[in-house]
Amino acid sequence: MEHIFPEDTPTYFADAEASFNESDIVLFGVPFDKTSSYRKGSRYGPDAIRKASWNFESYNFKTNVDLQDHFIHDYGNLSVSNEISANQMIEAVRAFSTSIIEQQKIPVAIGGEHSLSAAVVESFAKNVCVLFLDAHADFRESYQGERYNHACTLRRIVDHVGSDKVFLCGLRSAGKEEYNELTKQNISVSDSYSFFESKKGDIIKEIQSKFLNQPIYVSIDIDVFDPAFAPGTGTPEPFGLFPHDVLRIIDALIPQIIGFDITEINPEFDQGQTSFLGAKMIRHILERLLNKGVV
Ligand code: MN
Ligand code: MN
């Protein structure tokens, strides 16, 4: 990463300088990619996203929010590594996000592999709805003998909240059995092909009516974006979504958002652009939450 980010770039997320206690928003990194099956390296994602975050102005004229004026805490990385099991990583994430949620703060988890999202969702009460943005279904019961494999994330989330509380957007890859299971369990899906064929506003309305007046957690697997925008990821899938489309969806749901994550950024496979997209995405969502008075 030395050639991508200036050497003296701080190691915490830009403008997240407040203490845990005084902050309404808590960022934390999960440097773990042990179950990644294809191109490992998302364990370097949290630090790359932090470094990338210093590229941006603290003020955004579009949201009229200056992040420097707000109380945001970057906890740093949880002490997890590939030396521990996926179950131990899940335990660590669940314990930490529970401590954030108990204090009515908004958790922002930075991956690392996507499996961590299940642990954050499990920290919320079962009435939370989940917008799952992913090229993949992540709906296998287990994968390579591991129930908390990153190929099982949506399945674990459904175990907690139920199949009627999730919406999968951006799908363009699933095993046959996996896809049949999605259908059998009646999971709401907007695949990336129908996404491009339909009016974006219609899909937003569909998500809004499904999640009407309910709290929403947003889980972003960076591979939901087209690899043209996000090449730095373990399992890139062409025919993906555009960043502006995802912004529109998230903006429409902002008043209901109670936490989010961004996962699967692998800085070893690009020139930093995926980390910049991830960092800007985090900043944008934070600005919208603050601008709308959600926090
Ligand atoms: Mn995923
Ligand atoms: Mn994926």
Number of helices: 9
Average predicted confidence as pLDDT: 96
CATH topology, anyone? Arginase, Chain A
Please, how many domains? Answer: 1
Query: How much strand content do the residues show?
Result: 15-25%
Q: Count of DSSP E strands?
A: 10
Helix content: 25-40%
Order of helices and strands: EHEEEHEHEHEHEHHEHEH
- What is the H level of CATH, i.e. the homologous superfamily? Ureohydrolase domain
The structure class reads alpha/beta
The top level CATH class name: Alpha Beta
Cα shape: globular
User: Using only CA atoms, what is the Rg?
Assistant: 17 Å
Q: Gap between N and C termini, in Å? A: 34 Å
Strand order of the largest sheet: 4-1-5-10-9-6-7-8
Poorly predicted regions are none
Could you walk me through the main structural features you see in this protein, from its secondary elements to its overall organization?
The chain is of the alpha/beta class and 295 residues long. The protein has one domain: Arginase, Chain A (3-Layer(aba) Sandwich). The chain is built from nine helices and ten strands. The strands form two sheets. Strands 4-1-5-10-9-6-7-8 form an eight-stranded parallel sheet, with helices on both faces. A two-stranded antiparallel ribbon has the order 2-3. Helix 7 runs parallel beside helix 8. The mean pLDDT is 96. The site of one manganese (II) ion has 7 residues, from loops.
Lay out the secondary structure.
Blueprint: E1 25-30, H1 45-53, E2 59-60, E3 65-66, E4 72-77, H2 86-102, E5 106-111, H3 116-123, E6 129-133, H4 153-161, E7 166-171, H5 176-184, E8 188-191, H6 192-197, H7 200-210, E9 216-221, H8 243-253, E10 257-263, H9 273-291
Parallel strand pairs: 1-4, 1-5, 5-10, 6-7, 6-9, 7-8, 9-10
Antiparallel strand pairs: 2-3
Helix pairs in contact: 1-9, 2-3, 3-4, 7-8, 8-9
The structure holds manganese (II) ion (2 copies).
